[in-house]
Amino acid sequence: MDQLAFGQNYCVDQNLRSSDCALEISGLSVTYGERPVLIDIGAQVPVGSMTAIIGPNGAGKSTLMKSSLGIVPRSAGEVRAFGEPLSRQMHRLAYVPQRASVDWDFPTRVIDVVLMGMYRELGMFGRVRPQHREKAMACLDRVGMADYAARQIGQLSGGQQQRVFLARALAQSADLYLLDEPLAGVDAATEKAIIGVLKSLQAEGRTVICVHHDLSTVPDYFDRVLFINVRKIAEGPLETAFTPENLQLTYGGRLATAHINRLRTAV
Amino acid sequence: MWDAFLKALLFQSGYNASLVAIGAALLGAAAGSCGTFLFLRKRALVSDALAHSTLPGICVAFIVMVLLGGTGRNLAGLLLGSAASAGLGVFVVHWLSTRTRLPEDAAIGAILSTFFGFGVVLLTVIQSMRSGYQAGLESFLLGSTAGMLFEDALLIAVGGALAVLFVLLFRRPLALTSFDPEFASTVGVRVGAMDLAMMLLAMGVVVIGLKIVGLVLIVALLVIPPVAARFWTDRVEFVMLLAGIFGGLSGYLGAAISASAPRMPTGPIIILVGAAIFVLSLVLSPRRGLVVELRRRRRAQARLLAGWPVDPQPDAASAPQACVRGHLDPSR
User: Fold this and answer.
1) Would the CB atoms of A97 and B183 count as touching at under 8 Å?
2) pLDDT digits (tens, 9 = 90+) for A243-261
3) Three-state DSSP class for A226?
């Protein structure tokens, strides 16, 4: 029975046309040295969906995102966005790295970080004009950080830093947002603010993909899930793919059945 | 001595001293502004490996030129050799830290000392060559301004100006690469090219600085100015400008001091002036300085003892600055 459910989800997803996919990954493999980190990952993310990438530590969630974007080299596989090779659609993508990946003592102000999101617009040598600043301020306002525009970024709390990163992504005016653990280590108020912004992006027809680690909030925040643990375990809409079986397959025996059942009732 | 110092400052202690002062100031300005991005990208120590790796190249270039029948003292040839072995040194550090399990700092330590040791051995070999011209190669270790020529000053001026122009033009992608390289690559910055450019700039500064400061101390001229500048500003463009100014000032003042006292080594004096600027910044900076920090701590302690409510984060948690919104935005 498990096998059947699994197979069905898989088939439903394979039926998507390439042009309906904001992101389409096929046969993606990544190796670090001799160690395979990702093996033959395939996934289809429909336009306008909000997808959580879920898996245990070391499952390759961040690597999936980075290798899709070409930050980490792939040893095999193809990635397409909006029906075209990803390299030709990079201008429609916004990536939010993990907050801990940068040095927050870097000499820059909040508004300068948001302006980094407009690099394509500004070009290498273009002057920052008033309309650019206004757009950056509007993005900060959307995440509730407009009052902090002139602060040095090191003075911000973790949650505020995450919101500034989100504002930078908003400044990119992208159609597909890829966020690596945007809710890691932020307080409840910030979590609510960030999810509010992400849902508003979805309401505008944009596509959101998050690496997410908190299983209990998945049903509230997302409408699709992609389970991975080095290989792809399952993907699909919440109702069919967020199942105890798939959780068990992804996390192995490490997730207590009682816990899984609690999550199941939440769906 | 004071008179001599003032004279040197005003370019009145002779042709050579003036050349040295101008050359040192330009070198310092170039090193400070280029060093800013190395410092922010946390690559400052790589430039030390780079500098020490120049020595074998200088020696090999000398030997080759002598074997070809020359005097071995052609500056362009020596600098070409130094750049080649510096490039090799940095490449080996890069290879070791990315392809093996050796962490970068260990790779730097190993390569720096190996190349430098090999260079010193070659120096000894050269001394026994009896070509008659070997005197002076050691001056690349700590620099020597005694026989500085107009061409040397010109080389520093042109090289330094090109380096400063480059960082000024490319400051946006350079800053983005230093702050968040992964994000930078997704918005179209060629991160690999920027990293390579940073290394080539450092190599250029090291090579043109060999004559004045020498390969042992040149890293200080790349690192100290941006570190001192960081105390005064929170914006990367201003760190870059201020680092250029601090570097230029170190070179200029250092050259003047060494010109006004007999047998003072120019390179080390320049570095000491830079260090003095660093110490002043460390103590006096209005935001990050030791004095302010101490006063802040004292005040918080006094409040605590007096039973007043204590602000957990005196700066970050204070009332938001309303003025940044709208037309009063100071960032405009």
Assistant:
1) yes
2) 888 888 898 866 666 666 6
3) strand
Which residues of B lie inside 8 Å of A (Cβ-Cβ)? 40, 42, 169-170, 172-173, 175-176, 178-180, 182-189, 230, 233-236, 238-239, 315-316, 320-322, 324-325, 329-332
Asked, for residue B9, whether it belongs to a domain, the answer is yes
What are the distances in angstroms from CA A252 to CA A2, A52, A246, A247, A255? 15, 19, 9, 8, 7
Domain containing B297 — which CATH number?
1.10.3470.10
ipTM of the complex: 0.89
Q: Is B78 helix (H, G, I), strand (E, B) or coil?
A: helix
Q: Is residue B330 part of a domain?
A: no
pLDDT digits (tens, 9 = 90+) for B133-152: 656 788 888 888 777 788 88
Q: Are B325 and A172 a contacting pair at CB < 8 A?
A: no
The number of C-alpha atoms within 13 Å of B9 and in the hemisphere containing its C-beta is 10
The answer to whether residue A3 scores a pLDDT higher than 80 is no
Does residue B165 form part of some domain? yes
Q: How many domains does chain B have?
A: 1
Separation in Å, CA of A70 to nearest CA in chain B: 8
Contact A147 B188 (CB under 8 A): no
In a domain, B261, yes or no: yes
- Global confidence as pTM: 0.86
Check: CB of residue B214 under 8 Å from CB of residue B142. yes
